[in-house]
Amino acid sequence: MLDFSRFQLLTFDCYGTLIDWESGIFSALRPILFAHGVTISDAVLLELYGELEAEAEGGEYSTYRNVLESVVRNLGERLGFEASNAEARALPESVAGWLAFTDTVESLRRLKPRYKLAVISNIDDDLFASTAPKLGIVFDEIITAQQAGCYKPCKQLFELAQQRCRVPVDEWLHIGQSIYHDVIPAQDLGISTVWVNRPSARAGIGAVKPAQGKPDLEVPNLTTLADIALHL
After folding, report:
1. What pLDDT digit, counting tens, does each position of 84-137 carry?
2. Which residues pair with 121 in a beta bridge?
3. Is this model's pTM higher than 0.90 or not?
4. Strands 141-144 and 172-176, sheet pairing
5. Which of 148, 150, 175, 226 has its CB 3.0 to 4.6 Å from that of 154, i.e. a possible disulfide?
6. What pLDDT, on a 0 to 100 scale, did the predictor assign at position 165?
């Protein structure tokens, strides 16, 4: 079990960890697929999304808005239809409506008096600004892919977080839903990690690229994390 007494800083992935991005993805993509007569399971849709997003994020940096538009267009190519400009925009435009998990706000508010809290997210600044009011607290730092000029698992986001938060790695815990995006790059830098293994139509992976890694702690939700972190 992790010794939480040594941590000063908790950093969180946002979409998938704090925000229910799978419901958001389905809300945007299902109407598009329906309009083109495409029927696939939730698990297959998440698998395609994870593959296409990783491809779009792996090249030269482009905004997350552009990444999401490319996911829609490439999804259409894979599934035999051509997405319109409006359909491509529907996914990034839906981000503002994505909701926090039911345990997010209470857990963050419980943790806030004890720890310095920050977000490290593969997102644009303006898109995160639409999400921030749903999280219920003011974070000490917000680090985005737009600021770093690359996407996790790129380590520059974590290095930027360290510059701003000024906390030694042995006093820093990173929490995320993705082994690929969060656990592996954080551990490569010597940062302890928690994997929030939330329920998904694609169990254990969700809408992300598969990867092998062993977090320091696995929890099913943020309530469990807060209970452990606060020694309850």
Report:
1. 999 999 999 999 999 999 999 999 999 999 999 999 999 999 999 999 999 999
2. 144
3. yes
4. unpaired
5. 150
6. 96
- Cis, peptide link before residue 153, omega less than 30° from 0: yes
Longest dimension (CA), the chain: 54
* Cα(109)–Cα(176) distance, integer angstroms: 18
Query: What is the rounded distance in angstroms from the CA atom of residue 64 to the CA atom of residue 118?
Result: 20
What's the per-residue H, E or C state across 174-225? EEECCHHHHHHHHHHCCCEEEEECCCCCCCCCCCCCCCCCCCCEEECCHHHH
Tokens of 194: 């928690």
Distance between first and last Cα of the chain: 14
| Tokens 């083109």 belong to residue | 36
- The one-letter code for the residue type at 213 is G
For the segment 148-162, the average pLDDT, to the nearest whole number, is: 97
